[in-house]
Amino acid sequence: MTYTNEQHHDLMAAYAMDAVDERERAALWNAIDQDAALRSELAAYHETLAVLAAAVEDAPSTPSPAVWNGIQQAIAGDEAAAEAPSFTPVREVKRRRFTTRILGAVAGTAMVAAAFFGIQLASVDAPDLASAATELAAQSSSRTVSLTDSGGLAVDVVLGADGVGYVYADQLPALNDGRTYQLWAINDNGVISAGIFGTDGIAPFHTDGAVTGFAITEEVAGGVEASQNDPVAVWLDA
Amino acid sequence: MAIDDGMSDAALVVAVARFDESALRELYDRHGGAVFALSRRLLNSRTLAEEVAQEIFLRLWNRPERFDPDRGTLRAFLLADTHGRSIDLLRSEAARRERETKDGRLAPTPSFNLESEVLANVQAETVRNALADLSDGERKAIELAYFGGLTYREVAEQLGEPEGTVKSRIRTGMKRLRSHLAAAGVQPS
């Protein structure tokens, strides 16, 4: 369904408080991306809601120290520490669960759950990305792999020894409005989202650890925390 | 970069983008309590709220470029993220309960009165005045949508009002709140 600009503005306050349905959310996400006035209106609503949230806070709220400890452990990728009984970081729990799921998906079972943790996107121009990807591919310490499906699709990914990599996103089929591709990286600890991207040129990403597989799924714009979709293309280290 | 508590949020986010963990810690100290409080209010669970808080700051670490200082304060950005994530959990839990009980009715609406919940401090007084400026219908629609986690359609069903009316009340109520708070110079901390 296509909305008019007036309908976008009508829905913006409800959107700001997550009170629209998924179809409306996808449509508005796309419109907001393209319309500075909508972005400005949304930001103003978010400021108002932040004031409202603070005004009903009934007491100084302090999460337990375990929360920050979990953040530190996830940042450090310290799997051993993450197993500490006091508080298991969300990221680690979900990453382990998803490993099984995504491997199952390769065998034809739908993916069910995943952790949503993004990537450090490089702030460089597209031509620089192409050069950077080419240079990285030429290094002996890097790997170039192909994510494939059963229908002949092949999407190249270059991965450097430091975890920086590039997806040749333009090798993927075009997306409909409100949709995105999402890259998932598999390492010894599990699976994490390595970011979302469209089909323009080359998309950079960063991932940790020894990567043993990649998968790409198609998702609603903005990406997902729990993918229900089969991978579009997959590569697993033999 | 040496991190100190006089740095702006925007400068700290830049440091986070450079993998400076102490910058993330400073931001966590500034905003972690508000993130946790909002999530706990929405989810009514300290454990889940702590998981959400952890996830929100890991998102900031992993994708600092999502925050654009030209589009608002970091506090508002983090709370919007927190609200979205908490609502996702709330709705998935409601869906699970619905499947288990095969009860198609809406999840129970939390007992909540926005005006009476606003606390006694200077900023809260301004918010209370702003809320008093809303019609009952506007205030109820915002309460149920923002703090109750309902979509505007669910709010309409709950209140027995047309969807368009509720959507309109949310919009006009938010606009009125926004202009009232802006006139009073109130900003998120």
Relevant terms:
A: 238 residues, alpha+beta, 2 domains, four-stranded antiparallel beta sheet, 38% helix, globular, B: mainly alpha, Rna Polymerase Sigma Factor, Chain: A, Arc Repressor Mutant, subunit A
Q: Could you give the topology of this structure?
A:
The complex is a heterodimer of chains A (238) and B (189).
Chain A: H1 5-16, H2 22-34, H3 36-55, H4 65-76, H5 79-82, H6 90-106, H7 126-138, E1 143-148, E2 154-159, E3 164-168, E4 179-187, E5 190-197, E6 202-206, E7 211-220, E8 233-236
Antiparallel strand pairs in A: 1-2, 2-3, 3-6, 4-5, 4-7, 7-8
Helix pairs in contact in A: 1-2, 1-3, 2-3
Chain B: H1 9-17, H2 21-43, H3 46-62, H4 74-101, H5 114-117, H6 122-132, H7 136-147, H8 152-159, H9 163-183
Number of strands of chain A: 8
SS field, number of helical segments of chain B? 9
Tally of individual helices of chain A: 7
Strand content of chain B is: under 5%
Provide the structure class of chain A.
alpha+beta
Which structural class should the secondary elements of chain B be placed in? mainly alpha
Number of domains of chain A: 2
Helix-residue proportion of chain B: over 70%
CATH topology of the largest domain in chain B: Rna Polymerase Sigma Factor, Chain: A
Gross geometry of chain A: globular
Query: What is the number of independent domains of chain B?
Result: 2
N-C termini distance of chain A: 44 Å
> Poorly predicted ranges of chain A (pLDDT <50, ≥5 residues)?
78-125
Q: Helical proportion of chain A?
A: 25-40%
The ordered H/E elements of chain B are HHHHHHHHH
N to C succession of SSEs of chain A = HHHHHHHEEEEEEEE
